[in-house]
User: Which sequence fits this backbone?
């Protein structure tokens, strides 16, 4: 307790107490406006932003489109090796673009609306708490409790000690003192920037990451395609993905050679070929019996079919040299890139 609070007596108590309340209100109000704006912007993007308003596969489609647009091999490899990190980076990038470029006016209007709403909540709570205490002839402790409860759940006020303010009995005067300070609080809130919102506790990008990334991130042991199950732990249901990739994307190659594997997993599991479960393994397992190679293989359901995304054919053709350097292997021999793959562009989705 400060000297100022300890020694204020008489009618000046209401003035000092009003100042203390306004300081606490300012902190709570700014935090409430920022957090509500963060939640609202995230909600708006979940409803109207194409990448975020569909299923998991839809999000991946937009991430892949973004990667193709950038044509940055290092970012691609981050996505292949650590897909969650790249998806989170994509979400942050999209939120930043939405808030500060494409939908800046809309974001600012959300912020403005929340400033007005929080100001209204404070004014209403101030009026109702004062009226009730006057009617019931309560004390300062009752006023603080009433005021705090009326602010919830929009605002949470830090604990206020009434110990040295028991002499306050003119609550209309106290209300007027706080109303004076409320004008400067509203002015302060009106100056809030979207940058401030983006650094608050309820950051819009973090809200979206928590909602969109709370799912399974297991990667196919053959091609690194990410399981599309929306549940983090979906056991006993096996991991699966609608579209696999050429295994060379993950660095699979023919043992004893430097030849990268060009085939898609869905083709391999239908073939009579075999594979080694890891680099040091001496036992070869038939692709048709891949679940027998251990848990990391058995936990996946890979259907033998002819589904091959043209996107990954384009990726291998476009980044052939970079992939060969990255893995110190070659697309040659049995892993030679088919000539017709070179006709695909990054815009081909099928």
Assistant:
């Amino acid at each position: 307790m400060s000297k100022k609070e300890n020694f204020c007596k008489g009618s000046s108590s209401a003035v000092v107490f009003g100042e203390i309340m306004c300081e606490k209100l300012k902190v709570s109000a700014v935090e409430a406006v920022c957090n509500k704006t963060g939640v609202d912007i995230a909600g708006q993007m979940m409803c109207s932003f194409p990448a975020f308003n569909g299923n998991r596969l839809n999000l991946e489609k937009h991430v892949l489109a973004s990667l193709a647009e950038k044509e940055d091999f290092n970012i691609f490899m981050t996505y292949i090796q650590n897909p969650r990190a790249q998806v989170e980076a994509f979400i942050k990038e999209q939120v930043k673009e939405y808030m500060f470029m494409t939908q800046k006016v809309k974001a600012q209007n959300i912020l403005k609306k929340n400033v007005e709403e929080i100001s209204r909540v404070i004014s209403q709570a101030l009026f109702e708490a004062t009226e009730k205490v006057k009617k019931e002839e309560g004390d300062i402790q009752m006023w603080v409790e009433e005021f705090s409860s009326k602010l919830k759940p929009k605002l949470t006020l830090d604990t206020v000690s009434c110990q040295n303010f028991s002499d306050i009995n003119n609550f209309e005067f106290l209300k007027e003192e706080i109303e004076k300070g409320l004008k400067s609080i509203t002015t302060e809130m009106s100056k809030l920037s979207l940058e401030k919102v983006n650094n608050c506790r309820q950051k819009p990008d973090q809200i979206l990451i928590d909602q969109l990334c709370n799912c399974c991130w297991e990667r196919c042991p053959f091609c690194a395609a990410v399981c599309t199950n929306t549940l983090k732990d979906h056991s006993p249901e096996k991991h699966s993905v609608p579209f696999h990739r050429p295994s060379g994307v993950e660095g699979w190659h023919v043992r004893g050679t430097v030849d990268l594997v060009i085939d898609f997993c869905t083709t391999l599991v239908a073939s009579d070929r075999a594979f080694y479960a890891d680099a040091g393994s001496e036992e070869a397992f038939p692709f048709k019996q891949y679940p027998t190679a251990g848990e990391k293989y058995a936990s996946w359901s890979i259907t033998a079919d002819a589904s091959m995304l043209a996107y990954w054919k384009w990726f291998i053709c476009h980044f052939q040299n970079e992939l060969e350097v990255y893995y110190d292997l070659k697309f040659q021999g049995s892993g030679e890139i088919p000539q017709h793959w070179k006709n695909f562009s990054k815009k081909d989705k099928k």
Observations:
- The beta strands are 274-276, 284-286.
- The longest helix spans residues 12-48.
- The chain has a mean pLDDT of 91.
